[in-house]
């Protein structure tokens, strides 16, 4: 089957217990734009919030499900343990270190690893994040920050960088990536005494890398607020996605099959260590039901659940996301 390589990260979806605080952190402190306020299509009693660049270009989305009773996360292996966010330059990291300190955000010192400067930090629920400089990046291009954001566009977040996995069996995940998903093993680097193995796809670069650590001394993570639910990778269009549906069947990997998400089309499956992967199409995008200027301001519902709006709105707490 003639398959095109995956294009890189599409989005990362995580868990929050407080949509209001989450909105304030990611828009007012991190300067990302809320491009879609909707609900989890599999459980419409919870919000699904999408933060991204100015219009939610593929590869720029960090999304959150609000699970109000989510307990704490017990960190461990076989999980997504850090989401990198791209910023334009090394100078941007200096801006961000000062900003995070001023906003009392838990953060580390700027460091260099894998030939890039990066800055690790956590949100108010312990969500593990890192800013990575795009200064020496070659490969997938970043997005474009919203010009009305709380952060100057010259230092704004321009998309997802590498996604870091911590697994108990590197070999099985590496085999799926290289033999099944057409990734290339690009090298490795050291981080806090751990060896991190780098895999890349498509054009490569910050927007198309998966970084993996193998740990045998940790229990399996018990997820809660501040954990990552899944990572999605970019597929060009629906035709390509349907090829992946067939390919996973050939590989005897259980999957969801084709799923309609309205803003994109999806396919879900678990890699050998149990981490949930998604493949998602680049389009149609978030302007399918809202104009660019009003993205994220109102509760958006795909046409196939719009007739349930009254019931859905009755079960979720209002969240004011009007652009100021």
Automatic annotation (TrEMBL):
Coiled coil segments of this chain: none
Residue ranges of every copy of the VOC domain listed in the record: 8-134, 159-282
Q: Which PROSITE patterns match?
A: VOC
Q: Which domain of life is it from?
A: Bacteria
Q: What protein name does the entry list? A: Glyoxalase family protein
Native organism is Cytobacillus firmus
């Amino acid at each position: 089957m003639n398959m095109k390589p995956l294009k890189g990260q599409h989005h990362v979806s995580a868990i929050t217990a407080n949509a209001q605080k989450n909105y304030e952190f990611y828009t007012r402190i991190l300067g990302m734009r809320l491009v879609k306020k909707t609900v989890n299509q599999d459980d419409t009693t919870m919000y699904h919030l999408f933060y991204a660049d100015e219009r939610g270009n593929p590869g720029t989305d960090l999304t959150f499900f609000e699970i109000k009773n989510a307990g704490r996360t017990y960190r461990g292996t076989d999980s997504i343990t850090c989401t990198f966010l791209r910023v334009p330059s090394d100078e941007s990291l200096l801006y961000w270190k000062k900003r995070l300190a001023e906003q009392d955000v838990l953060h580390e010192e700027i460091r260099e690893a894998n030939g890039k400067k990066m800055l690790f930090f956590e949100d108010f629920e312990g969500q593990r994040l890192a800013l990575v400089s795009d200064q020496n990046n070659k490969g997938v291009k970043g997005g474009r920050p919203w010009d009305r954001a709380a952060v100057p566009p010259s230092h704004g977040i321009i998309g997802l960088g590498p996604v870091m996995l911590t697994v108990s069996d590197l070999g099985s995940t590496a085999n799926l990536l290289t033999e099944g998903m057409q990734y290339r093993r690009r090298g490795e680097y050291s981080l806090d005494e751990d060896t991190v193995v780098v895999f890349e796809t498509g054009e490569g670069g910050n927007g198309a890398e998966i970084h993996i650590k193998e740990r045998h001394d940790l229990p399996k993570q018990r997820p809660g607020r501040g954990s990552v639910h899944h990572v999605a990778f970019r597929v060009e269009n629906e035709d390509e996605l349907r090829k992946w549906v067939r390919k996973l069947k050939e590989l005897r990997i259980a999957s969801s099959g084709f799923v309609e998400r309205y803003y994109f089309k999806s396919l879900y499956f678990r890699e050998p260590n149990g981490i949930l992967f998604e493949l998602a199409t680049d389009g149609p995008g978030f302007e399918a039901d809202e104009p660019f200027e009003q993205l994220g301001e109102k509760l958006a519902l795909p046409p196939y659940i719009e007739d349930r709006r009254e019931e859905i709105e009755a079960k979720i707490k209002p969240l004011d996301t009007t652009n100021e």
